[in-house]
Amino acid sequence: MLERLRWSVGAYRQDTLKPGDRHPVDGTTGRFHFVAAGAVDVRGDAESVALQAGAFLLAPRGGRHTFVAREETTLHTGELTVASTGAAPVLSALPDKVIAHCFVCREPIVAALIEKMAGEASQDRPGSRSVLSQLGNVLAAAAIRSWVESGCGSADLLSVPLKDSDVGRALAAIHADPGEPWTLDRLARISLASRSAFAERFRLAVGETPARYVARVRMEQAKRLLAERTTVAEVAVRLGYGSEAAFSRAFRRHEGVPPTTWRHAPTGEGVRPFGR
């Protein structure tokens, strides 16, 4: 589930709310909110939720709600956009609000990550948007895990990405080493199934063919490597392509542009503040 749900962090802000202050949020873009200090009530159309210091709220599809400070509160907010393919089934299965109470207690590193995100958002450094998104992915993944561990995640949600444990072994192998020369035969053997049975079970469980899934995983990994300034030639080798040209052709089919063009697109600009 977490592997299929990756985010890009856009605008980021830190607010200090006085007791009684109201902070409305309205929009279709996903957001996360972290209560660094204080306490707030989150009021929506039909419910109100109290959040104490250390709590994390993920609104995967955005929506309208208002924070009302019960005491002086420091609130961190980040704008989230899904940046991975194949995330729609998981995203649609998540509730409007994923809340991780006592998040800092479960994940002590959260405070340091939030501090780092605030620093990246306030400085105009090269690649700040990419760094901010990487940190945001860690936070969102840890929050969803904490939410599931607390018993809030439904069985339907947990089974969205995969309902076949045998196919799961093949998926684990692909993600562990996407550059391997994966074939239908090799993956079927890992899943202890015949070629035809494995191909059908994979399609039913994942929603696409093994070959298409391997290609998509490789492209997601390629984008992460390119964002880290790895050379195109090295990416081609690490992901199992026979040549830089072969990788470039595959990348262009998937993304619509060559890898060099994608890497030099203005995605590493300083993070824009809200309202600009």
How would you summarize what this structure contains?
The chain has 276 residues and is α+β, with helices and mostly antiparallel strands. It has helices at residues 88-93, 103-106, 110-122, 128-149, 155-158, 165-176, 184-190, 195-206, 210-227, 232-238, 244-255, 259-263; strands spanning 7-17, 22-25, 30-37, 39-43, 48-52, 56-59, 65-69, 73-82, 98-100. A hairpin with a 4-residue loop joins strand 4 (39-43) and strand 5 (48-52).
Q: Could you walk me through the main structural features you see in this protein, from its secondary elements to its overall organization?
A:
The chain has 276 residues and is of the alpha+beta class. The chain has 2 domains: 7-158, Regulatory protein AraC (Jelly Rolls), CATH 2.60.120.280; 165-263, Homeodomain-like (Arc Repressor Mutant, subunit A, Orthogonal Bundle), CATH 1.10.10. The chain has helices at 88-93, 103-106, 110-122, 128-149, 155-158, 165-176, 184-190, 195-206, 210-227, 232-238, 244-255, 259-263, and strands at 7-17, 22-25, 30-37, 39-43, 48-52, 56-59, 65-69, 73-82, 98-100. The strands form 2 sheets. A 5-stranded antiparallel β-sheet has the order 1-8-3-6-9, with helices on one face. Helix 3 packs antiparallel against helix 4 and helix 7 (184-190) packs across helix 8 (195-206). The longest helix has 22 residues, at 128-149. 31% of the residues are buried. Residues 154-162 and 266-276 have low confidence and may be disordered.
